[in-house]
Design brief:
The complex is a heterotrimer. Chain A is built from eight helices and no strands. Chain A is an all-alpha fold. Chain B has 17 helices and 19 strands. In chain B, the strands form five sheets. In chain B, strands 5-2-1-9-17 form a five-stranded parallel sheet. A five-stranded antiparallel sheet of chain B has the order 11-15-14-12-13. In chain B, strand 18 (607-612) and strand 19 form a beta hairpin. Chain C is an alpha+beta fold. Chain C has a five-stranded mixed sheet with strand order 2-1-5-3-4. In chain C, strands 6-7 form a two-stranded antiparallel ribbon. In chain C, a hairpin with a 2-residue loop joins strand 3 and strand 4. Chain C is elongated. Classes of the chains: A mainly alpha, B alpha+beta, C alpha+beta. Bound molecules: flavin-adenine dinucleotide (FAD), iron/sulfur cluster (SF4) and FE2/S2 (inorganic) cluster (FES). FE2/S2 (inorganic) cluster binds next to loops of chain C.
């Protein structure tokens, strides 16, 4: 059977209709994206990509503690990645498009899968006591939406320099821009909330990746949760130090 | 008219009978098979195996079950294992030995040819199941593990943890679903057979009720297979699933199929005793517990002290006392009867004084708690979950409960009942276990019938029908049966009584258990024959079925089943009364020796009692199929 | 003791349902939860009210017929047991107990607490078998199976098809059931020939009826046989592999 097949025969006298329509199969590997298990793979793979970005971003930002010069050089070097092999900015743009693609797939698959889940569960129980599902796992959609909003805010704030820039935004003066933004308590608070949403999302997502990709071996399964918790703590913990450090005046102009 | 009970048992050397018979039977050409409709009722081991195998051969099969999925049949509950004469352990097992043990275990009341065939095909069953992916227990080397079971002296029992029945049924269910996916089997779930249609003396179809919608509908076919399980629930409390019933077999009986040996019922000694009058069913615990547990009751009557306060000297280890050689490991019927004796004497234990102790303290002292836990841990957990008592600290309480019924529809060597075209397979027939079934042999029989016997023997019958279309469902025979069922349904809906169906089922169960239970006597049986019709009259006048006949109506489903149990119970009593001997699961108090051992009467009762329906309110007529024993010579069972 | 039961009543598949409250006294610790419903039903019948329809059969946790949402948990608060194995000693005098049927779109409620779980059979029908027609099987000991493999297959095969995993899942996903059925067959040497085809068919049939897994792990907690979500991981891996493998097989048939 392929994904095109009609609703299965079932028993002769009982009529149960599928809630999801069978799809016309596209050629491999697109056919993978037509199924929920395949979409979970896409979510997991894009998740890994985004995690890699988040991790690198966090490491890069640690340069903040080394002072304005180091930090600005680091920011500039991003634009010159693989330069002079490639023209300036090209690699950065390729990476940017990659990121945009990953986010798009991650969000689109989450969206379509959510619709599928809603169809499967139109009626709630009058009461449901969860045993395993935790706050993080049940709020993936909320934390996801929060993260998307945070991301837009962050881009508008420090990449495009359009909003919440405080004393002013100067292209290329990355170190100063960061401090001008984060020294405003409200903005710092937004960054902190964003990091908490990230922590919640990663807490479940980083573990979930293994499960979705089927990376499973009873001997190492304990490590999967450990990795997820460790990664979340590391990335979000260190990210949280930035607004705090600026507010506390540890990082200053 | 007296029935002609021709067993069709082949002659010649027992080893060659099945092979010769298979050769002698007519075949249906592969291209003609699809011209035959076969209805399989029941999708337990016997039914699922038969439906799948027949469909593989090319017949057009319809399968019916009242469950919502074939996988829920009662076979799923079997725990212990399945026998097969594989001799993988090199401990001297053979087809002949399995045959011998089964005939002897059945107390010489089974047909030798059938039993030999069962032992023969047992070997193929294991191969078939492994090929289907049944995850039997294995040894570290990767080969199949075996254990000894039910007092057998060889290890021939294959098992899958404590879930053998489940795994075998899932294997058969998978095979069935494969055929469903190919369109060769049409599956009707939640569909209960409520009548068998017979035209000109030949079975031509069935009438069913759809349990979800209430629709009454007929199905026609060239042959009908009843694989509908046993009737232990006539006792109300038994280890069988709540919905097991005799209705299919009984309605076939009313249409002319002889019912054989209804009094042969098996009582299992190690079940958890009932805790109150609302108890709905009893839970079986593996017999293996008797390997290490010691059974006892207080010596004194009405002793209310907790077990640990009864000193050693005031305990009566009655099995060890009476049967020094076998002790706690005596066969099921002996262990059960002795438990009943001490409880009836007033020495029972537990809040309702309805059990005996099964004590592991010696085993724990001797082997350590760890070893005991390893051997019986999951059983102990199950016991604790049900009773709230910790068997590592206080002795378990056990009591016998009805477990299996050896009696059933009479069938010949081809598994055909006395109605041509109507077959009975699995626990629903009477064929292979005589008066007593050995542990781990029911699963074997169900699968043997379904996979390896019926698919051949049906061909022989069908080959003669080539070119005849099935009787159409528009035939008056169907219309009449449907009308009869509709009338019956509306009768029940309109009784307008006051008491629930369960109430009457429970009352009936008490009579059956007290009078037709583990130990029977003339007086009690006569009382039962008098009491059952009285209670049944009251039941028919005073039962209350609410709701409508359309849609799900569980009271309506039950009321018809219980009504059939009433008639069956009466026949059980009559059969037990006429059989003036003790054999296997049938123990007549009048027929025991000085030491309380069962006394068989081979001279007068070496026959199958096949009862013929004579109409409502008229006692059935007894027909006898004599039994010959050419190979295993009747001897007394002794466990001293 | 006395308990109050808040039970979902619904006259038929298309009727609207609502809760009715009943109180039952004289409940004993030893009674099973379903026996309390039996008692309630007898009293309702005697009082002229239609009994509550609920399904059960074996009453020992193996047939998978029973299944109720009790106090917001599939099969009730006790771990690793089916509804029929729940005893009243888990509750206290005066407790109010909420009883609901499984509520999942593909398990339509037939009446009161009974749902139709036919989609689970449909998933099996799609490929949950090893094709081995009766008669042709080789000797059972011809292919040795390492004990750990047989044990793992048995762990998966223990599934009783009750549907609690779907019922407990916030997404109404059928992953635990399907993966258990798949793992049973996919782990055994006998199941290899159809492995990729089977995986593809069963997963895609599952997706016609159920939601998608977000790895909550709620199913594993509800499962009366404590089947592990590790099997879901195995299924996810096998599914994507099946897409690749099946393409290869097709390629081989056009040389
Ligand atoms: C607790 C327990 C443990 C056991 N352990 C063992 C063991 O270890 N070893 C062993 O060998 N045996 C054991 N047995 C016995 C064995 O399980 C049964 O004898 C055997 O499984 C019966 O199989 P079957 O196919 O004949 O019937 P069942 O499995 O009972 O199937 C009956 C089928 O018929 C259907 N049906 C019935 N009536 C109708 C109707 N009117 N209309 C439509 N469908 C109908 C049902 O839906 C079901 O599908 C045990 C039994 C019990 C109770
Ligand atoms: S996986 Fe567990 S919860 Fe799901 S159907 Fe099987 S036994 Fe029930
Ligand atoms: S009734 Fe069989 S599992 Fe509960």
């Amino acid at each position: 059977m392929t994904a095109t097949q009609e609703a299965p025969g079932l028993t002769k006298n009982i009529d149960v209709r599928p809630i999801n329509k069978p799809k016309k199969p596209l050629p491999f590997p697109l056919s993978l994206y037509q199924t929920a298990v395949g979409k979970k793979w896409v979510m997991a793979l894009t998740g890994i990509g985004i995690m890699g970005f988040v991790f690198a971003h966090m490491i890069g930002n640690l340069k903040m503690y080394l002072g304005a010069e180091e930090y600005n050089t680091y920011a500039e070097s991003l634009r010159e990645l693989l330069h002079p092999i490639m023209p300036k900015h090209v690699v950065l743009w390729v990476m940017r498009f990659g990121m945009i693609g990953m986010f798009a797939f991650h969000i689109h698959s989450a969206y379509t899968l959510t619709l599928m889940n809603r169809r499967s569960k139109p009626q709630r129980y009058s009461r449901q006591d969860y045993v395993a599902a935790n706050y993080a796992s049940r709020t993936m959609r909320v934390s996801g939406i929060l993260l998307a909003a945070f991301l837009l805010m962050h881009l508008a704030n420090l990449t495009w320099g359009k909003v919440l820039t405080g004393k002013g935004f100067v292209e290329g003066e990355v170190y100063a821009n960061v401090i001008h933004s984060l020294e405003q308590p409200l903005v710092a608070a937004l960054y902190i909330v964003g990091q908490l949403a990230l922590a919640s999302h990663l807490f479940h997502g980083a573990w979930s990746i293994f499960q979705s990709l089927g990376i499973n071996n009873p001997r190492y399964n304990g490590l999967r949760k450990g990795f997820a918790y460790g990664f979340t703590a590391l990335v979000c913990g260190l990210n949280l130090t930035f607004p705090v450090a600026v507010l506390a005046g540890i990082v200053k102009l | 008219m007296v029935l002609e009970l021709d067993s069709k048992s082949p002659k010649g050397d027992i080893k060659d009978r099945w092979d010769n018979h298979r050769f002698d039977m007519k075949l249906v050409n592969p291209n003609n098979k699809r011209k035959f409709d076969v209805l399989v009722v029941g999708t337990g081991l016997a039914g699922a195996a038969a439906a799948a195998s027949l469909a593989q051969l090319g017949y057009k099969v319809k399968a019916f079950t009242f469950h919502d999925s074939p996988r829920r049949a009662h076979s799923i509950a079997a725990q212990g294992g399945i026998n097969a004469a594989k001799n993988y352990k090199n401990d001297g097992d053979s087809i002949y030995r399995l045959f011998y043990d089964t005939v002897k275990g059945g107390d010489f009341r089974a047909r030798e040819s059938n039993v030999y065939r069962l032992a023969q095909v047992s070997v193929n069953i294991i191969d078939q199941c492994v090929a289907q992916g049944v995850p039997f227990a294995r040894e570290y080397g990767g080969l199949l593990d075996n254990r000894s079971f039910g007092g057998a002296q060889v290890s021939r029992t294959f098992y899958a943890r404590g879930q053998t029945g489940q795994q075998l049924l899932i294997g058969a269910y998978h095979a069935l679903m494969e055929q469903v996916s190919k369109g060769t089997v049409e599956l009707y779930t939640k569909t209960e057979l409520l009548d068998v249609v017979v035209k000109d003396g030949v079975c031509c179809g069935i009438v069913t009720r759809d349990l979800s919608t209430g629709e009454v509908r007929s199905f026609n076919g060239h042959a009908v297979l009843l694989c509908t399980g046993g009737y232990s629930n006539a006792f109300y409390l038994s280890t069988n699933a709540m919905n097991c019933n005799v209705t299919a077999a009984w309605r076939a009986h009313r249409k002319g199929a002889a019912f054989a040996n209804p009094c042969y019922t098996q009582i299992h000694p190690t079940c958890i005793p009932a805790s109150d009058e609302f108890q709905s069913k009893l839970t079986l615990m593996s017999e293996s517990l008797r390997n290490d547990g010691r059974i006892w009751v207080p010596k004194g009557f009405d002793d209310n002290r907790p077990a640990d306060q009864i000193p050693e000297g005031e305990r009566d280890y009655y099995l060890e006392r009476k049967y020094p050689a076998f002790g706690n490991l005596v066969p099921r019927d002996v262990a059960s009867r002795n438990a009943k004796t001490v409880v009836d004497e007033g020495r029972g234990v537990g809040p309702l004084k309805n059990g005996v102790f099964l004590d592991f303290s010696d085993a724990i002292n001797r082997l350590g708690e760890d070893v005991v836990k390893e051997r019986y841990g999951n059983l102990f957990d199950m016991y604790e979950r049900i009773t709230g008592e910790n068997p590592y600290k206080v002795p378990m309480r056990i009591y016998p409960a009805t477990h299996y019924t050896m009696g059933g529809l009479w069938v010949d060597y081809n598994l055909m009942t006395t109605i041509p075209g109507l077959y009975a397979l699995g626990e629903a027939n009477f064929s292979d276990h005589g008066a007593n079934r050995l542990g781990a042999s029911a699963l074997m029989q169900g699968l043997a019938d379904g996979y390896f016997v019926a698919p051949y023997t049906i061909g022989d019958y069908l080959s003669k029908l080539l070119g005849q279309p099935p009787v159409p469902v528009t035939d008056p025979a169907f219309a009449e049966a449907e009308a009869g069922l509709r009338d019956e349904i509306s009768m029940w809906m309109n009784v307008g009584g006051t008491k629930s169906v369960d109430h009457y089922h429970r009352e009936l169960g008490k009579i059956v258990w007290d009078r037709i239970g583990m130990a029977r006597d003339k007086n009690g049986l006569e009382k039962a024959i008098a009491e059952i019709p009285v209670l049944r009259e009251e039941f028919r006048k005073n039962v209350r079925v609410l709701g409508t006949p359309e849609g799900i109506n569980q009271s309506l489903e039950k009321v018809m089943r219980v009504d059939d149990f009433f008639e069956l119970a009466e026949l059980m009593a009559r059969d037990a009364l006429h059989r003036e001997e003790s054999c296997g699961g049938h123990f007549r108090v009048e027929h025991q020796d000085e030491e309380g051992e069962a006394q068989r009467d081979d001279e007068n009762f070496s026959y199958v009692a096949a009862w013929e329906w004579k109409g409502r309110g008229v006692p059935q007529e007894l027909n006898k199929e004599p039994l010959d024993f050419e190979y295993v010579h009747p001897a007394k069972r002794s466990y001293k | 003791m006395r308990v109050t039961l808040k039970i979902w009543r619904q006259a038929g598949p298309s009727a609207a349902g609502s809760f009715s409250t009943y109180s039952v006294d004289d409940v004993k610790d030893e009674m099973s939860f379903l026996e309390v419903l039996d008692v309630l039903n007898e009293r309702l019948t005697e009082a002229g009210e239609e009994p509550v329809a609920f399904d059960s059969d074996c009453r020992e946790g193996i047939c998978g017929t029973c299944g109720l949402m009790i106090n917001g948990q599939a099969h009730g608060p006790q771990r690793g047991t089916a509804t029929c194995q729940l005893h009243m000693r888990t509750f206290k005098d005066g407790d109010e107990i909420t009883v609901e049927p499984w509520k999942v779109a593909s398990f339509p409620i037939m009446r009161d607490l009974i749902v139709n779980r036919a989609p689970l059979d449909a998933i099996v029908e799609a490929g949950g078998f090893i094709s081995a027609d009766t008669g042709g099987a080789p000797d059972a000991n011809l292919i040795p199976i390492p004990k750990p493999v047989a044990d793992a297959a048995m762990d998966a095969a223990a599934c009783i098809g009750c549907g609690a995993c779907v019922a407990a899942c916030p997404n109404g996903a059928g992953q635990l059931f399907t993966s258990a059925k798949l793992a049973h067959l996919n782990l055994l040497p006998q199941g290899q020939a159809q492995r990729w085809d089977r995986t593809e068919r069963m997963v895609e049939t599952m997706e016609l009826f159920f939601g998608s897994c977000t790895n909550h792990g709620e199913c594993q907690e509800a499962c009366p046989k404590e089947i592990s979500i590790d099997f879901i991981a195995l299924m996810n891996r096998d599914y994507v592999r099946s897409k690749v493998k099946n393409r290869k097989l097709i390629g081989q048939s056009f040389p």
